[in-house]
Amino acid sequence: MRDPGCARIGRMAETPGPSATRGAAPGRPGAHGTLITVAPTGAEHAKADVPTLPVTLDELVRTARDCEHVGAAMIHVHVRDDQARPTLDLGRLRETVAALRSETNLVVQLSTGGAVTDPEADRLRVLDALPDSASCTMGTVNFGDDVFLNRWEFIVELHRRMRERGIVPEYEIFDLGQLAALRRLLDEHGLPAGGHVHVDLVMGVPGGMPGDAETLVAALRLLPEGATFSATGVGRATLPVLFASLAAGGHLRVGMEDTLSYARGERVRDNAQLVARAAGLARVAQRPPLTPDEVREILGVRLPAGAPS
Ligand code: KMH
Ligand code: ZN
Q1: 138 in ligand 1 pocket by Cβ < 6 Å?
Q2: CB of 150 shorter than 6 A to ligand 1
Q3: Could you give the 3-state DSSP secondary structure of residue 171?
Q4: How far apart are CA 216 and CA 24, in angstroms?
């Protein structure tokens, strides 16, 4: 039997017309304010090269508190092992989710993207840590000199398990064709947990879509109707994407996962510096930072079944 969500999704999957384009205006849910997500660590940078990168649980919790204080509402988390290497160890992920829940009010999102070398089984197991939200990348993309592999069956399995557990996905989009894949996913497998579609446009990865205003606008007409979106510009795309997203009624993801340079010739001091800048610009745009509880309401985030509160 087709999922009850499919009637609505069937309409979404039609070729986007003028009404989908109109949806890009500040009429999107939550567009009176700005969801600021911090992505503090990632899987790519080495602690030896970036000594201020938060890699221990203590460093992560301290960063999370500082970022919440200056306007973040969600945290996108990659964890590291004792040698500061990326890991998807389930015990460590559970401990991290618990610590962030007890020390902050942030919406806790775990990465299922991991590092480019992580096997699918380990990436799926991330969901057993029962975060509020998890990333779900909508296709394979060249990633610098590497390949970030996301097969169709794997994507469907992530989506299915998140629905089962009540974890709200953030669909990560590295290239425009991945928005067509998102429409197919929703059409064939129904709305995600929470009943709302939220997308993050990850722009400026070498191998993916460029990080500029024209490409962001092109992405908007491919978004499912009623979806919200954040945008992330990697490296030198950070500021063009931030301004374009704010102007288009979108939300922001910032952090040291994506950005290590604050200005020409100036290294980022810490994640809170990037969040504070995003929050200041969001206020200037008359779209001040949304609180974590406002974000829960917009994205449909509830504590996943079985998760310790
Ligand atoms: N580290 C990248 C290979 C995600 O977190 O879901 C993938 C990534 C996306 O960062
Ligand atoms: Zn990530």
Answers
A1: no
A2: no
A3: strand
A4: 11
Q: What local confidence, expressed as pLDDT, does residue 8 receive?
A: 39
Token pair recorded at residue 269: 């001091």
What is the number of the ligand 1 atom nearest to the C-alpha of 148? Answer: 3
Give me the pLDDT at residue 303, please: 83
If one residue of 44, 118, 123, 148 were mutated to test the ligand 1 pocket, choosing by the most ligand atoms within 8 A of its CB, it would be 148
Q: How far apart are CA 61 and CA 41, in angstroms?
A: 12
Q: What is the pLDDT of residue 81?
A: 98
Query: What is the SS3 assignment for 210?
Result: coil
Q: How distant, in Å, are the alpha carbons of 86, 215, 254 from that of 296?
A: 28, 28, 19
- Ligand at minimal distance from the CA of 171 is 1
Q: What is the pLDDT of residue 248?
A: 97
Calculate the alpha carbon distances from 20 to 14, 41, 171, 220, 268 in Å: 10, 34, 18, 8, 37
Q: What is the pLDDT of residue 6?
A: 38
Residues of the chain short of pLDDT 50, as ranges, are: 1-25
Contact 223, 251 (CB under 8 A): no
| Contact 43 CB / ligand 1 (< 6 Å) | yes
Going from the Cα of 266 to the center of ligand 1, the distance in angstroms, rounded, reads 25
Q: Is the pTM of this model over 0.90?
A: yes
**Other beta carbons within 10 Å of 66:** 20
Closest residue to atom 7 of ligand 1, CA basis: 113
What is the pLDDT at residue 127? Answer: 98
Quote the pLDDT of residue 304: 84
Q: What is the pLDDT of residue 243?
A: 98
